[in-house]
Amino acid sequence: MTWIIKNEKPKIGVFSLTGCAGDQLMILNLEDTLIELLAKFDIKSFQEASSYSENTKLDIAFIEGSVSTDHDLKILKNIRENSSLLVAIGDCAINGCVQAMRNNQTSIAERMLDVYGVKDNVYNALEPKGVGEYVKVDAEIPGCPIEKEEVFNAFISLLNGDMPLIPDYPVCVECKLNGYPCVIIEESKPCLGPIITAGCDARCPGLGLDCIGCRGAIRGETNAKAELETLRKRGYNDKYIINRLRFFAGNFEDIKNLGVREASKGERDE
């Protein structure tokens, strides 16, 4: 997929909704290539890098963070209306991520009571969701946080009129390409690699650790029930597995409907 570049230096903005700003920070972590790369763009807003912000039409808007309040939603709709392309960066912007882990499990009123001691929705909170639940998203860069190399490649692709290419296969593929042993088979670890989007070079399994799912589930290919059954056979109970799946990917269709109102803590069956 391509897009038409309207300006010699595309006008861009980098924005944040509800999140930790870690994805903006990963752009800044490009360090050695950052200045040269960003010089190719006309930056109109970049909250993590500068207090300067110009309210204008944009060629590309990069948004991190989930839509968790009415205020977030108003900001998002304004950005979408004034941008030719909208790129969701990070899991929060794509699917709600950590903020969405209790969606479909407890009501906003229950959460307000637990956290603030009041039932009224005094902060106009919404069910945390990715930006694509409300507006058209043209491209996504997954991760919590995003991979800086993937960000660099995405910027270059967009500069050349192309859309960023994101892997459509699981972390397991990168494990095999790197010759890593399967931590599920060899060590019975609760690895989520079979259903999680690749692009991290299987960093955690390469260190003998299990994938925790920080790049979110593969779009349209998330066989969460098969993952659940695989880990059951390794001695993990449903409560533990489901909460683990929900931590980064609770809003994905195949995951959010697993179980009902699970407790926030599970144990392994011995």
Automatic annotation (TrEMBL):
Gene Ontology molecular-function annotations: iron-sulfur cluster binding; oxidoreductase activity
SUPFAM superfamilies, sorted: HydA/Nqo6-like
Annotated signal sequence range: none
Pfam (any one): Oxidored_q6
This protein's UniProt keywords: Oxidoreductase
Positions of the NADH:ubiquinone oxidoreductase-like 20kDa subunit domain: 20-157
Coiled coil segments of this chain: none
KW Nucleus (keyword) present: no
InterPro entries in the cross-refs: Hydrogenase_assoc-protein, NADH_UbQ_OxRdtase-like_20kDa, NiFe_Hase_small_N_sf
UniProt name for this protein: Hydrogenase
Lineage summary: Archaea, Promethearchaeati, Candidatus Odinarchaeota, Candidatus Odinarchaeia, Candidatus Odinarchaeales
